[in-house]
């Protein structure tokens, strides 16, 4: 089965592959791959201009244009990992059809000393490793070289030239193109890892809080349910005792509510220094140098509660929406005023991205 071997996992446009910091590497990769398409146009085009039969010149031009368009589409798919697999397969199938159709259309075109179709064969060999598995690409390269030799024999051209151009130039294109796309794929995977790490950190915090709430409420709600059932049974036979049980249910419910409020308060009032350490470690593990400056003393609890969510949000924004290589987190205190500033070098604007 034909499959894309590089950038295999599709990524939604809102995900890592659409991150602003990947825009220029992707454009650079596309620009390089466009040179392969340009080669598919220009080199066989020389044969078209050298063709004396106007009919074959027109058919050759049509075949070359169709091949180049299909090649450009499939190379675009290589560096567009958010495309769906059905769309990717349709583009690859279109390229295969254009490649096969180019043999009768372009094969007879050109003078005896210009191997016109061999250049299209080189493009097929060069594109194969980006679309197929290792062994399938090798088989396709051998088959394409054999077809190129057959075209040379059919048209009476120099067979050796056909083979050398298709195999030699094709393998050179394959090596450089694969390396370029491999670097692009590494960038996508790295950015996906950074995004996943940020999400995992938030998920682990929510899971911890959910576990705390479960532990607090599990026992209380079980007792409340049993007491309520007992009160319902006693209502018809012992109203006084049923009333006492109902009052106990009310007391237990109020106690459980107070415990939940304390848990939520404790969750929100997490230690600011621990959060600073955690955010700095996440940024450093994602390749962002991070420097933290804290005031010498402890901050008031109500101030720390307000700073923690801002710190988390700003850290997430740096990971997901900036191209930062370094970040500084400064917390200063001047009397009753506390200021937190986060600065990084990855913003699109000329001024720092500051959260205070």
Overview of this structure, please?
- By secondary structure, the protein is mainly α.
- It is built from 9 helices and 3 strands, in the order H-H-H-H-H-H-H-H-E-H-E-E.
- The protein has helices at 23-50, 54-78, 85-106, 116-131, 134-155, 159-234, 239-268, 272-285, 301-321; strands at residues 289-293, 326-334, 337-344.
- The chain has a 3-stranded mixed sheet with strand order 1-2-3, with helices on one face.
- A hairpin with a 2-residue loop joins strand 2 and strand 3 (337-344).
- The protein starts with 22 loop residues before the first helix and ends in a 12-residue tail after the last strand.
- Mean pLDDT is 79; it is low at 1-16 and 352-356.
Average residue pLDDT: 79
**How would you classify the helix and strand content by structural class?**
mainly alpha
Q: Which blocks of ≥5 consecutive residues have pLDDT under 50? A: 1-16, 352-356
C-alpha end-to-end distance: 54 Å
Counted beta strands: 3
| Secondary structure tally, helices | 9
Our Rg estimate from Cα atoms comes to: 33 Å
Helix content: over 70%
Strand content: 5-15%
Spatial order of the strands in the main sheet?
Answer: 1-2-3
Please specify the SSE layout and strand pairing.
Blueprint (H helix, E strand, L loop, with lengths): L22 H28 L3 H25 L6 H22 L9 H16 L2 H22 L3 H76 L4 H30 L3 H14 L3 E5 L7 H21 L4 E9 L2 E8 L12
Parallel strand pairs: 1-2
Antiparallel strand pairs: 2-3
Helix pairs in contact: 1-2, 1-4, 1-6, 2-3, 2-4, 3-4, 4-5, 4-6, 5-6, 6-7, 8-9
């Amino acid at each position: 089965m034909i499959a894309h071997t590089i950038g295999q996992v599709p990524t939604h446009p809102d995900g890592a592959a659409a991150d602003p910091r990947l825009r220029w590497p992707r454009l650079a990769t596309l620009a390089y791959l466009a040179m392969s398409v340009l080669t598919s146009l220009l080199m066989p085009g020389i044969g078209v201009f050298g063709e004396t039969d106007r009919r074959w010149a027109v058919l050759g031009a049509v075949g070359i244009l169709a091949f180049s368009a299909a090649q450009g589409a499939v190379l675009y798919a290589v560096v567009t990992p958010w495309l769906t697999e059905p769309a990717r397969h349709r583009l690859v199938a279109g390229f295969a059809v254009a490649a096969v159709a180019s043999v009768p259309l372009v094969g007879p075109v050109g003078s005896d000393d210009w191997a016109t179709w061999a250049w299209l064969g080189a493009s097929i060999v060069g594109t194969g490793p980006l679309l197929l598995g290792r062994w399938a690409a090798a088989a396709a390269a051998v088959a394409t070289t054999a077809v190129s030799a057959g075209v040379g024999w059919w048209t009476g051209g120099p067979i050796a030239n056909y083979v050398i151009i298709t195999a030699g130039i094709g393998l050179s294109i394959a090596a450089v193109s694969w390396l370029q796309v491999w670097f692009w794929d590494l960038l996508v995977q790295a950015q996906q890892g950074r995004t996943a790490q940020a999400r995992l950190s938030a998920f682990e915090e929510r899971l911890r809080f959910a576990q705390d709430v479960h532990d607090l409420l599990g026992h209380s709600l079980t007792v409340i349910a049993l007491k309520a059932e007992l009160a319902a049974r006693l209502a018809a036979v012992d109203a006084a005792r049923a009333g006492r049980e109902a009052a106990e249910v009310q007391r237990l419910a109020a106690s459980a509510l107070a415990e939940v409020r304390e848990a939520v308060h404790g969750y929100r009032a997490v230690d600011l220094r621990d959060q600073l350490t955690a955010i700095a470690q996440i940024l450093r593990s994602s390749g962002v140098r991070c420097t933290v400056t804290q005031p010498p003393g402890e901050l008031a609890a109500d101030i720390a509660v307000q700073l923690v969510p801002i710190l988390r949000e700003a850290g997430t924004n740096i990971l997901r929406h900036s191209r930062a290589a370094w970040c500084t987190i400064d917390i200063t205190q001047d009397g009753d005023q506390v200021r937190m500033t986060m600065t990084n070098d990855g913003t699109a604007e000329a001024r720092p991205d500051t959260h205070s």
